[in-house]
Design goal:
Structural class: alpha/beta
Number of strands: 6
Radius of gyration: 17 Å
CATH architecture: 3-Layer(aba) Sandwich
Largest sheet: 4 strands, parallel
Strand content: 5-15%
Number of helices: 9
Shape: globular
Bound molecules: zinc ion
Oligomer: single chain
Helix content: 25-40%
Order of helices and strands: HHHEHHEHHEHEEHE
Length: 236
């Protein structure tokens, strides 16, 4: 058992896991209680297989129009009020422990997938200083232990600090992610399958740009896993 896992086990003993949805003690190692697992079920049919948008064909018209660099896409939930509040608490109110809850969701979606490495969408140095943690990295690290797939720390880096994407329009988002990410030369990822983790997919520009540069670094396959999909901005 690695050190981090051991620490988590001890912490779970001192502070028994509570459900990320209803906040009740789950009575197990799980961070989602049995009731919420049942009640909060997300349906995956009638959603675009590349962006999660509600759509009655396999790929939505918008995805058909653009060049998508990732090969497979998985999301856990639509960005409903419930999820929105939890993500907000996790990202902006410093409630770091929510990573257990989000990782468990992703694990359920990805447990049958294979990959050679897991990569998290990076945040800038400025955002890291402000927040104190990269919300995607915490999830990716725990997921790596659960899936037994190595976490490639620092494989992707963000070299430019751009404005918070949630404050931008869809068109601006596309522009603002161009050339802000780089593949760091620390792992040999050529010919490998990579699982890329992000929190929310809105326009899809961030994961698509990360996938583009991973492919440029000769990655064979990119699978994207996100907590939630929000497509409100696509209509702007
Ligand atoms: Zn619950
Ligand atoms: Zn789509």
């Amino acid at each position: 058992m690695d050190k981090f896992f051991l620490l988590e086990t001890i912490m779970n003993y001192i502070f028994p896991p509570t459900c990320g949805f209803c906040e009740e003690i789950t009575g197990s190692d799980s961070f989602i209680c049995e009731d919420c697992k049942r009640i909060k079920k997300q349906e995956y049919i009638n959603h675009c297989c590349m962006c999660g948008k509600v759509c009655y064909s396999e790929i939505c018209p918008e995805c058909r129009k653009k060049k998508i660099y990732y090969d497979k896409f998985f999301f856990c939930y639509e960005y409903n009020e419930d999820i929105k509040e939890k993500i907000h608490r996790y990202k902006f109110l410093g409630e770091k422990y929510y990573y257990h809850f989000f990782t468990e969701m992703l694990y359920e979606r990805l447990k049958n997938e294979t990959a050679d490495g897991i990569v998290a969408v990076p945040i800038s140095h400025e955002r890291m200083q402000e927040r104190g943690y990269n919300q995607c990295e915490l999830i990716a690290k725990k997921l790596s232990r659960m899936l037994k797939i190595p976490y490639l720390k620092g494989a992707l880096v963000k070299v430019v600090h751009n404005e918070r994407q949630s404050l931008q329009t869809f068109k601006l988002r596309k522009e603002s992610v161009k050339n802000v990410f780089q593949v760091a030369d620390i792992y040999d990822i050529s010919g490998k399958k990579i699982l890329l983790i992000d929190d929310i997919l809105a326009s899809g520009s961030t994961v698509n740009e990360c996938s583009r540069i991973l492919k440029q670094a000769k990655v064979k396959e990119v699978k994207v896993g996100v907590i939630a999909v929000s497509h409100i901005l696509n209509r702007l």
